[in-house]
Amino acid sequence: xxxxxxxxxxxxxxxxxxxxxxxxxxxxxxxxxxxxxxxxxxxxxxxxxxxxxxxxxxxxxxxxxxxxxxxxxxxxxxxxxxxxxxxxxxxxxxxxxxxxxxxxxxxxxxxxxxxxxxxxxxxxxxxxxxxxxxxxxxxxxxxxxxxxxxxxxxxxxxxxxxxxxxxxxxxxxxxxxxxxxxxxxxxxxxxxxxxxxxxxxxxxxxxxxxxxxxxxxxxxxxxxxxxxxxxxxxxxxxxxxxxxxxxxxxxxxxxxxxxxxxxxxxxxxxxxxxxxxxxxxxxxxxxxxxxxxxxxxxxxxxxxxxxxxxxxxxxxxxxxxxxxxxxxxxxxxxxxxxxxxxxxx
Length: 345
What we know:
This protein is of the alpha/beta class. 38% of the residues lie in helices and 19% in strands. It contains twelve helices and 14 strands. The strands form three sheets. Strands 3-2-1-4-5-6 form a six-stranded mixed beta sheet, with helices on both faces. It starts with 11 loop residues before the first strand and ends in a 6-residue tail after the last helix.
């Protein structure tokens, strides 16, 4: 089915303001449309108002907007309080004619004025928005959202989100948040050694290559999906991916064959999948969950691999979010939650 508002309802826009990507989803009578833009806020914080305004213009006007924020963790800000306040001010400037509803870590929407008064209530709540929406349609499951940078694992039991943590540190401790993703994560953050020429070779602790190179090389991510800047600033074509991956072992493409690169990439991908599966096991041990793994995000294929390790069913909520909404899930989720639109998975 196509997710859409009732004919009498006004359009709603959902925003997910991250430190690396800006995501927006517009829900109207025609359905759900999404826009995503790479945005390194630590480099471009002064451009945030313009970026938001351009995305809003592309999507079209909406009198109501739902917002979730994760950019506050960026080292562009000295504290999370400063980061949330900065983003709120940018939204207020960029969308002056829009009634903004800010989504909190308690699962509720609040007006802009209150968000300014209690900014920490609104830090990193995007995972909860997606979980609350999914819980209405898959009442028992493990929701796994793997983005460019992080992985969120959220247990849902009896239609209720039963995650043990709310803040980032609490969720890290419980395995509900992993700082590993399908694009931006550097290879050396995933492995300490890789197979090379029949032996184990330590990797360089340098930002030579990222998981985006790994999954482009292995054809798990398309060039259109490769939105993260490369480690060396060069193109994301396979030739350059191979060169960056060779540097992980302090080599170059004159020293390593395509088969060598493939062996290296497959191993790194396998280790990352195992790390995610380990976190999945940790969450399941704390909160026994019956039901499937529900995967969203650019790295949903990794969630599927983890599900297979535990012989769990795997589904993607395409009918709920649509194909584009799977990648921009929190933005789509806050729009749908604010609209109160019933949908089915």
